[in-house]
Amino acid sequence: MNRLLFEKTGRAVFISHLDLMRIFQRAFRRAGVMLKHSQGFTPHAYVSILIPLSVGVASRCEILEFELDESESTPLASLPELLNKTMPEGIKILKSYESDRKAKHLCYLHADVTMEYDSGVRAGCADAIRDFFKRDEILMDKRTKSGETASQNIAEMIRDLKVLEEENEIHLDCTVCAQNPSLNPLQLAKAVSQYLSEYAPDFAKCERLAFLDEEMQPFL
Fold first, then answer.
1. Residue 143 pLDDT > 90, yes or no?
2. How far is CA 211 from each of CA 59, 63, 176, 203, rounded to the nearest angstrom?
């Protein structure tokens, strides 16, 4: 399987998943690189993104899978340079490569959750949050695909978490489950607001840093 490792930052975080797919297909066309397409009346390009990114979330580790047309001879190594010439600001191809690793081997996500406090971080905030995430059970509601609301214990999906304090920010350097089950890192900030209302942030944002396998090694 051919893959692209790319980052999505800055204003590009507000590009939706569907629009991002269109951007990549258009980028390949503009670069003169032919993607493989399905047969039939409505052919579609063989491109997909592992673990789609929510709008508003930045990432340094997104992975796109693609298949080239059988007639295409462009070297994979040249794709970053060719595609980056056509990409909008904030989307940058870091690497193009071939991998035989299956998506199911992607197990964990390393991310940074930044909680911002307009009036500065209150005394004792970082320690209270550290103690909070030592709990064996932290129940949060999650909407299922059927539209129903179910309760899940997010404490079981946290592999590692460090709390770092700055003048007006608390950073949660976390590693969480990425699949089956998955945990959106922003749920950690929501949990703080729900259970520790006196330390609720004024704003929270997230940046994906790396996908990891079951051995906690980079997934590529």
1. no
2. 10, 9, 10, 25
